[in-house]
Amino acid sequence: MGLNPNSLKNTSAYKILSSFFDDGVFSEIDSLLSSKDGYAEAITAFGTVDGVPCYAFAQNSDVSKGAMSKAQSKKITRLYDMAKTTGAPIVAFYDSIGGNLSDGCDILSSYGEVLKKSIELSGIVPQISVVLGTCLGTSALTAVCSDFLIMKKDATLSVDTLGTNADAEYNFKNGVANTICDSDEECIEKAKKFLSYFPSNNLEQSPIYSDFSESTDDGKCMAHFLADEDSTFGFNKGLSKDVGTAFGRIGGMTVGFVTTKGTDIDENATKKIVKMVSFCDAFSIPIVTTLNAKAFTTLEYAKKVACAYAEATTAKISVISGEAYGAAYIALSGACANSDIVFALDNAVVSPISPKAAAYVLDNEKLSVPVSEQEQIANDFVSSKLNAENAAEFGLIDEVVEKSQLRNKVISALNMLVSKRVSTLPKKHNTIY
Fold first, then answer.
1. From CA 304, how far away is CA 310, in angstroms rounded?
2. 316 and 271, same domain (yes or no)
């Protein structure tokens, strides 16, 4: 056919990959593989991103509108196989009208092979999907099976080939898209940002940086106080604002933050927490949880969070920054959570049930006073019996610290836990869903 790969250099996919890889330099894989009578509808390649090896593919909307074909499937599945053997992350750029119907029923096999390879690599190498244009049907299913998904604001993503509920804002609010960007360039930079916090695979240590600045307490949340200056990178903000999830660095060490903010933990907050804990555990990224939560809105959500923390064997540090009651304490900081160390600020409150209810149960005689005086007596009980020092005496907290000392304490704990390894009983998976 005399196909010339140089003729692709002005196409959308080539430009995307040139912007993504360092200095625009990358090596193509199967560059001359053809689809029917022309080029395959995607470019697959490898190169470096901030000096770290990475694989990527970009569907080429300038070639048959990026339609999935047997040839495209062959190129992408080979890319996944190479990532599996070398242990390098994969970034996928989606922009396609769907499947090439001229392939007939074979298109189902093509889609199935790509999806299978992606699922097989889950938890082995980090996978990031970037939706820059149209991504519908089975392509959308493959895209959402990645670890993190970035969408351009005018892109579409839906398993429904008609594009029902496909806009970026809808997917962002439902937690399918982890972040939304205004342009191709911003999407590419966000993908690079994600990669900078991840190890290349599940056998490598998470990145450690020697060049960092002390934190600055901006008053927003405990994660910003603990993290190195300008190192936090939040996501899934559209799903829930009651719980924050972010990557960041503490003393140069990469960590995942889970931050509760004083409200009850509902369904969307649970989704954020479980996803973060699961990903960090798969790639041995330490989890720093700052706990200020009274309850879960349902027992089902408490079960999911408790299971995620209990199963995670990566390093886990909990900081009780406010109130920690009952199931919230147990699931995110207690023995069930298998926390390696639990710190608490001196104003923290730890209670098996609502503090006022505890006062009525445990200090009932003192509450046989006029109703107008009961509030003060209950508050006195909380401050004297349910404070951090009392919880430490019962072994619920390892150390009570002042806020000014907390960051150094966490850094010290991370240094000790950096080589943590845990062997678990053999099993395929748990049965708690």
1. 10
2. yes
